[in-house]
Structures are given as C-alpha cells and as structure tokens.
Amino acid sequence: MISSFVITGFLGVGKTTMLTNSVKENFGDKKIAIIVNEFGDVGVDSKILKNVHSEVLEISEGCICCQLAEEFEAGVTEIIQKYDPEIIFVETSGASEPFPIFLSLQNMGISVDGVICVIDSKNFSSYKENSTAKYQLGGSNIIVLNKMDLVNETEIKELEAEIAEIKAEYNIRNTMTNEPIFKNYVTHRAEQGLVGKELFEGVYKVEEVVEFAQDSTHLDHTLKDSITQKVAYLKEDINFADVDEILENVPESIYRVKGVVKVKDVPNAIFVNYSFGDASFEELLDYEDKSLLIFIGENVDKEVTALTKKYDILNVPKFSISRG
C-alpha cells in the first residue's frame, strides 16, 4: 500500500521549504514522489523541488476541482506505474483547498496518512480571515507552525487558540452524518521549515508491519519526545466488526494505528491503516503470522492498557523493550 501526505497552506507560508527540508532530512531511505499542484503557468515550486528529488509531477492551475481531477488522477497513476514510490507528497496551490485532493487519493486506493497545513506563525493575522485559508485549516489533521523563531511564547499561545477556533468552525464534515472527517488534529512547531521525522512516523509498508509480528523486540519504541508506539496482539477467534469497533474507539491522543489482522468473516488477512480517525483496509495473501495492531501517539502506554481492559481480544505482552 502506497502512503501519501497532502501539504496545504496559504500563499507564501513556506510549504515548498518545509517539503524540501523534510525530504532531504528524513527520507533518504525511501522512494519518494512529489506532485506539485500549481497555480498559473510558471512552475517555480516544482523547479525547486526537482533539486531535491527528480520525480516531480506538476499539475497546473492550482484548483483540482472538477475538470482537473481527472488530470491529477491520471498523473498519479502514471507516476506510480513508472516509479513505484513508497510515499507520495502532494503540494497544493496556496489558492486551493486540500480536501478534493484527499478524496481523489482515497478514491485511487492510496492511503492518506496526513493532510498537513503549514501556518506562517509570524504573519498569520494578515491572512487568517481569508476563507480559503480557513478551509485549508479545517481540511487538515496535522498543523505545522512554521517560522517559530520569529514569534514569542505569548504569540504562540494566541496563535494556537485562534487555530482551535477556526478548526472547530471549518472542520470538514461528512454530509450524510454531519460527523467531522478528522476527529482530531496534532500541532507541530517548525523553524525555517524543518520538522522532525516524528511528524511522519507510522508510515510503514506492509513488510515492515509484518516484521513487527515476527520480532518481539519491537513491542515498545520511543519515537521522539512524547510520541511513542506500542504493539498489541489480537486473539484468533474474532470478526471484522470486533476490529472495527476498536478503531472506532481509539482515543484522540493516538494518531495512527497500523497492523495486520486475521478475522473469521474475511478469507484473507487484512492490512489495517488508521490515521487521525480515518481507517482503510486492504486484503493480504499468504499471511500466516500473528494478528497485531501498532498504536502510535501520545500517552500510548496508558491508552492501550485502557483499550485492553475494555476489549479482551487485545493483549499486550508482559515484557517490553524500549528504544530511544
């Protein structure tokens, strides 16, 4: 399963800088494809990104809605066929909203591990009333506060409060249920567009998740600061609805869940991919190892323990190995 991230944010907030620095710093061991959804005829951002990574596809005119959706999906299909990337980054135009791209990627069966909205911490007040900027925030589940070296702690707290208000009002909702698409979000701080790899942690290929099932030394792992991960195994005699119920009740402090489970009512094992309240599934052939889920987020030890008490089909081994 290919993973993807959508990078959004208003004009001039530093999206390209963040993407450039992040790819250089964190993804030297991955096959990366970058898609630039630009506005206008001159693809400046794509030229910058090509200095970092050669596989850059440019989609012109910014807005992916309506007529350009087919061009976008055709371009993504082409880049997958030619390059077979592990992770796709899509940088949107500063004048467009991210949600149509999110939907297009999901419709293509591509896992969207995060919609990242980059905020100009210093100049947010100058564009915060723009409706596009508000919907960019509302349609994201990861907020990156950029240019943090230019603001003080008081300004940061005011900024975070303003973001919370906008998120509450402009959060994208399911038109059928009126439930928010992203039930929670996480905020990261960045200076000069540089964010740590913990922002992208949990982007595991199927083979890497299978490795967790085969190697007990992966039971616990400290990723960075307060972000940790914990592995829980599942009993054999379970149905798909049991797994779905667990995912429906994952607390907000757990950002991602990855795993492979075997259930009675599906013939093949299922690769589970949960990210910020949104879950997707893919059948796997010839998987014979244990069923397990990898929980990633904050306060994971406490939260997973609570889940095991609520659901007796989950089991956390008595011993664990931590890694710094």
Distance between the termini: 28 Å
Count of DSSP H/I helices: 9
In sequence order, what are the helices and strands, one letter per element? EHEHEHEHEHEHEHEEHEEEEHE
Low-confidence stretches: 39-68, 216-225, 319-324
> What number of structural domains do the residues give?
2
Average pLDDT taken over every residue: 76
What's the helical proportion of residues?
Answer: 25-40%
Radius of gyration: 20 Å
What's the architecture of the largest domain in CATH terms?
3-Layer(aba) Sandwich
Biggest sheet details: 7 strands, parallel
SSE class:
alpha/beta
By CATH reckoning, the class of the largest domain would read: Alpha Beta
CATH overall fold name of the largest domain: Rossmann fold
Q: How would you describe the oligomerization state of the chains in this entry?
A: single chain
Counting DSSP E segments of at least 2 residues, the number of strands comes to: 14
Give the overall shape.
globular
CATH homologous superfamily name of the largest domain?
Answer: P-loop containing nucleotide triphosphate hydrolases
Task: Please characterize this protein's 3D structure.
It is built from 9 helices and 14 strands. By secondary structure, the chain is of the alpha/beta class. The chain folds into 2 domains: about 5-200, P-loop containing nucleotide triphosphate hydrolases (Rossmann fold, 3-Layer(aba) Sandwich); about 205-315, Hypothetical Protein Yjia, Chain: A,domain 2. Helix 2 links the parallel strand 2 (about 30-35) and strand 3. Helix 5 packs across helix 6 (about 155-170). The radius of gyration is 20 Å and the shape is globular. The two termini are about 30 Å apart. Belongs to the SIMIBI class G3E GTPase family. ZNG1 subfamily. InterPro entries: CobW-likC_sf, CobW-like_C, CobW/HypB/UreG_nucleotide-bd, P-loop_NTPase, Zinc-reg_GTPase_activator. GO terms for molecular function: hydrolase activity; nucleotide binding. Keywords: Chaperone, Hydrolase, Nucleotide-binding.
